[in-house]
């Protein structure tokens, strides 16, 4: 019985340690193949390339901690890129907060549909993904929208002191702000309580609907911010600009050790997961592997990570 009692703790230790160990092993392997990778400039360039993915996955992590999933984040980021490129000439510096706010509202609407009509988040956000993609196509005329004046987004694609990419600071700042929100306010405890056992949380009097709507709003807002980061480095918006980031974002969340069933996980784990995904992409490119195989690897990673982190006490029947 004593051994059985320690099994959950040991499993939690393994789930926590494995992502960090995998990141260090990947980094060491790539450094052995290319010693220059460990130089400060190379590491900062890697971090810079991971910034949009990190921001995109950060907000989506909160939805997963609630026991849901947001499949619309990449499509919403693409829509954000189109809106930002279209609005910047008229709104100038106000275009960025306007786009991020609109995306947060879009996320909140999805959350409201989810809780009001009791539709699974998978279905709601799958429909949302289609809707945002269609709106992006309509708004852009199915074409790339150039951004003639990059001034509104210069802050998101520069190097402070000529060394540190501003996008890295934006990604870390977003992670820190969300982590502080979850730690300092009751939201963190509420989110985990809902994800761990929603019926018990409801009996305890927690505002389930409000918690979920806030989680989806945060996910939408970070998707909008990720779209801003992408526009900053491409100087344009496009209806499919961020679409390829959906699977990597999900992979970053689950590979980092956040349980897809909710209740267990943390934002720092998603940060590690984003690092793993980025190192794998760089490693595949360095090895000369065709980019088409990346999606295959991400799919395998997602299935494997879910198998390791899933709380099977919640899924006694698998359909």
TrEMBL record:
<keyword id="KW-0812">Transmembrane</keyword>
<dbReference type="InterPro" id="IPR001851">
    <property type="entry name" value="ABC_transp_permease"/>
</dbReference>
<feature type="transmembrane region" description="Helical">
    <location>
        <begin position="213"/>
        <end position="235"/>
    </location>
</feature>
<keyword id="KW-0472">Membrane</keyword>
<keyword id="KW-1133">Transmembrane helix</keyword>
<feature type="transmembrane region" description="Helical">
    <location>
        <begin position="122"/>
        <end position="143"/>
    </location>
</feature>
<feature type="transmembrane region" description="Helical">
    <location>
        <begin position="94"/>
        <end position="115"/>
    </location>
</feature>
<keyword id="KW-1003">Cell membrane</keyword>
<feature type="transmembrane region" description="Helical">
    <location>
        <begin position="163"/>
        <end position="182"/>
    </location>
</feature>
<feature type="transmembrane region" description="Helical">
    <location>
        <begin position="292"/>
        <end position="310"/>
    </location>
</feature>
<feature type="transmembrane region" description="Helical">
    <location>
        <begin position="12"/>
        <end position="34"/>
    </location>
</feature>
<feature type="transmembrane region" description="Helical">
    <location>
        <begin position="40"/>
        <end position="64"/>
    </location>
</feature>
<feature type="transmembrane region" description="Helical">
    <location>
        <begin position="71"/>
        <end position="88"/>
    </location>
</feature>
<dbReference type="GO" id="GO:0005886">
    <property type="term" value="C:plasma membrane"/>
</dbReference>
<protein>
    <submittedName>
        <fullName>Ribose transport system permease protein</fullName>
    </submittedName>
</protein>
<dbReference type="GO" id="GO:0022857">
    <property type="term" value="F:transmembrane transporter activity"/>
</dbReference>
<feature type="transmembrane region" description="Helical">
    <location>
        <begin position="241"/>
        <end position="260"/>
    </location>
</feature>
<dbReference type="Pfam" id="PF02653">
    <property type="entry name" value="BPD_transp_2"/>
</dbReference>
């Amino acid at each position: 019985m004593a051994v059985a009692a320690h099994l959950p703790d040991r499993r939690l230790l393994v789930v926590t340690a494995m992502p960090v160990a995998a990141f260090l092993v990947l980094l060491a392997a790539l450094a052995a193949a290319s010693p220059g990778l460990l130089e400060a400039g190379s590491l900062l360039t890697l971090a810079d390339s991971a910034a949009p993915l990190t921001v995109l996955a950060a907000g989506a992590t909160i939805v997963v901690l609630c026991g849901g999933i947001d499949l619309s984040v990449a499509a919403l980021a693409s829509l954000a890129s189109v809106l930002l490129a279209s609005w910047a000439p008229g709104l100038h510096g106000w275009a960025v907060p306007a786009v991020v706010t609109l995306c947060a509202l879009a996320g909140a609407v999805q959350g409201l549909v989810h809780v009001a009509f009791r539709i699974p988040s998978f279905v709601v956000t799958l429909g949302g993904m289609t809707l945002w993609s269609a709106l992006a196509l309509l708004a852009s005329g199915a074409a790339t929208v150039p951004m003639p004046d990059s001034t509104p987004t210069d802050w998101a694609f520069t190097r402070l002191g000529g060394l540190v990419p501003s996008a890295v600071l934006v990604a870390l700042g977003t992670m820190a702000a969300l982590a502080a929100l979850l730690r300092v306010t009751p939201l963190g405890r509420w989110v985990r309580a809902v994800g761990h056992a929603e019926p018990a949380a409801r009996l305890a009097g927690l505002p389930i609907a409000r918690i979920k709507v806030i989680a989806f709003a945060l996910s939408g807002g970070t998707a909008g911010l990720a779209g801003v980061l992408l526009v900053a480095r491409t100087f344009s918006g496009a209806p499919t600009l961020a679409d390829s980031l959906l699977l990597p974002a999900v992979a970053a969340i689950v590979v980092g050790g956040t349980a897809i069933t909710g209740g267990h996980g943390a934002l720092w784990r998603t940060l590690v997961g984003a690092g793993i995904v980025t190192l794998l992409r760089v490693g595949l490119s360095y090895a000369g592997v065709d980019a088409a195989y990346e999606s295959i690897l991400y799919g395998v990673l997602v299935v494997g990570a879910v198998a390791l982190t899933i709380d099977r006490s919640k899924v006694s029947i698998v359909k």
